[in-house]
Structure formats: structure tokens, C-alpha cells
Amino acid sequence: MKSLYNFIQKFSSLFGKGGKLESLYPIYEMGEGFLFVLPQKTKTGAHIRDSIDMKRFMITAYIAMVPAFFFGIFNAGYQHFLSLGQSATILTILLKGLLIVLPIYLIVLVVGGVWEVLFAVLRKHEINEGFLISSFLIPLIVPPTIPFWQLIAATTFGIVIGKEIFGGVGMNIFNPALVARAFLFFSFPRSISGNSVWTVFGEKTIDTYTAATPLAVVSDTVTNSGGIIQILADKGYTWFNMFLGTIPGSIGETSTLAILLGLLLLLITKTASWRIVISVIAGGFAMTTILNLIAPDSSHIFALPFHYHFVMGGFAFGTAFMATDPVSSSSTRQGKYFYGFLIGAVAILVRTVNPAYPEGMMLAILLMNTFAPLIDHFVVQKNKKRRLKYASQ
User: Fold this and answer.
1) Residue 206: enclosing H or E segment and its boundaries?
2) Which residue would you say has higher pLDDT here, 252 or 24?
3) How many angstroms separate the CA atoms of 318 and 314, rounded?
């Protein structure tokens, strides 16, 4: 590694101040910083001595999403062969899924990377590792059938409008990946539904096989032939297969098991706030309990228990990877409880009350991203009043 570091250092003068490629220094610094911990020291402000820097923080979050990503690859291939009524080996399923998911990931990575580099060069600052997280999140929250041109437009919107327009990493109010998903949902609602999987007829034609997701099933309150759980079972959705994730849906959101594995890593390494996670679950459980009590009948979506809500749609994924975003969430300890609780409650309320929008998690997180600074403001003001009161005694 030392020889590689010395080799890279030979080009530092070209990108340094006064060098021929000075304007491209952010690109050079990104490559150097990605490979090595640079011998740099902070010069101003308060210093916190910790073994976790920005690079390690982002890498931990990235690794935490790997189980959901790989299961998404498997499920994309699995749903493809299922729609054809064919059986296939695990290897064949994985290869097919890789052909579906990998282009989506590479497109987001390239498009998002271009915008990150462009703004870094124009603003003359380093390229932050945060763009790797956004480039991983966006592919996980879209269905495998998303048209590439829509994906390019959404990624551009999410990175530019959701982050760079506010000043870049650490300055954004909203989660950029959720901004990209919101753009897709409101601009191309049929493409973001996640109800379809790819089906290939022959060698040239690509069409889709449509299968209602669990949320789409329970949001249809016209059917009242039995309890809501039985209605799901009749459509082939049990709690267990929704927990495993072998169902239609967005690439990284279907497997609650894979998501929980990633969440465990985030909590162990303290990369994610357990206060937010617990509060989101508590808020969702509280709202579900209220709706269960007022459900008109057992077939209504209000009657669906919370443990089903948790494994359906993007609730688990949003709880683990979106609500816990340290930039757009509440920063104060007490604020995290309010922030998370309201996300869980609003998510369940939206997905049950509004039949035109059976998801809810995306809207709930974006809404609370807006109110996170206000929540922190009230918490800080409360603490100031408490301390002033003690100081006056």
C-alpha cells in the first residue's frame, strides 16, 4: 500500500495549487481519500477526538445496505422467473437479477457522481463520501422496472434540488434519495408503483407482468370477503414471505430480514440513532392500535395489525436507513423521540386513510425532515429556560 501511496503522491503537484490540473483537485482528493486516511489536521473550531471519521461513518452505512441490495438482486431474478411460471437454479436467478439491478445502480452512481464532481469543482471543495450513500439508496427504493431515462431525471433532481442547491453534504434539509423517489412518484406514478417485474418474451421484447403489492391489496377496501389477513393470504402474501421479501416491490424494500441485518450493524456501531428507530416503531404501533379500535370491519385496512404494517412497503427500510439520516433528522436527544414517533404515526395514517397513496413512509419522512429543525429549536429553548431557572436560584 505504501508503494501505491507514493505513486499517487507523484501526481499531487499537478492537482495542487498552481498545478496544471488545479481545477480538478477535488477528483484527485476523492481518489486519494477513498484509498487512504490522509495526514490532515483540523485547524479551527471545536475538536472531538473519535476513531470514526466521515469516511468510516459512510462506509459503515454503505455496508449496512449490502444485505438488502443482494437480496434485491435475488428477488428481481426470482420474480422474473416466477412471472414466466418457470423454475431456475439459484445461480441463474442471481445472474438474471444482476442483469436487472446492476445497470440501475451504475446509472445512479455515474449520474450522481457527475453532479457531485461538477459542484465540487465549481465550489472548489472536496468530494464528500456522502454521494456513495445516495447512489446506493436510490436504486434500493425504486422498482426493477424503472425506465432508465426516468432514473436519470430522478437522480439529477434528487442530487441537485435535494442536496446541492442547499450547499452540499451536511447542508441539505431533505434526504436526497427520498427527494428522488418523490420526484418519480409525483411525475411518473405508474413507474414507481413497484407492482411489476420484468418478463422477456423471446429475445427482443421486454414486457411486464403486473402483480399487486401487499399494500395495493389491503388498500382495496372494496373486497370484504374475509378478514384483512385472509385477503392477503388469498393473494399469496403471508407474514413470513413478506418478512423474507419474496414479493413484488422496490429492489431493496421487500426483505425485512435483510433490512434488520443492516440495521443491527448500524445500531451496534452507533451509526444510527436507536432513539429514532424505537420511536418510529412506537409511533407506528400507536397509530395502528388506534385504527384497529375504530376499524369498521375485519376486512378494512384499519384492522391490519402493526406487525404486518412493519413488513409491508417501505416501513422497515425507511425506519432503518431513511429516518435515521443524521443530516436531515433531529439532532437533539429529546427531539429524536418526537421526530421518530411522528414519522411512524404519520406513515401508518397516510397509508391507511389515503387509498390513492398506500405507502406513506416516504411522505412521512419528508414531512418530518421539514419539521426537524423546529423540533430541535423547541427542545433547545426548553433546555435554555430550565438552565436559566436553575442559574437564577
Assistant:
1) strand 205-210
2) 252
3) 6
Instruction: Check: pTM over 0.90? Answer yes or no.
Output: no
- Of 259, 20, 288, which Cα lies nearest the Cα of 11? 20
Kindly compute the dihedral angle of the four CA atoms of residues 208, 212, 215, 221, in this order, to the nearest 10 degrees: 140
Calculate the alpha carbon distances from 185 to 150, 154, 170, 191 in Å.
Answer: 11, 10, 25, 8
Helix, strand or coil, per DSSP, at residue 198: strand
Express each pLDDT in 78-118 by its tens digit.
Answer: 988 988 888 889 999 999 999 999 999 999 999 988 888 88
Q: Exposed, middle or buried by CB within 10 Å (0-12, 13-18, 19+), for 51?
A: exposed
pLDDT of residue 206: 42
- Quick check: 94 and 74 in contact, CB under 8 A? yes
pLDDT at residue number 205? 36
Cβ neighbours of residue 172 under 8 Å, at least 6 residues apart? 162, 163, 166, 327, 328
3 state SS of 207: strand
- Residues 6 or more apart in contact with residue 281 via CB below 8 angstroms: 310, 319, 344
Q: What is the DSSP letter of 208?
A: E
Pairwise CA distance, residues 171 & 128, whole Å: 12
d(C-alpha 27, C-alpha 6), whole Å: 18
* Coil/strand/helix, residue 197: strand
Who's near 138: CB < 8 A, 6+ residues apart? 108, 112, 151, 154, 155, 158, 177, 180, 181
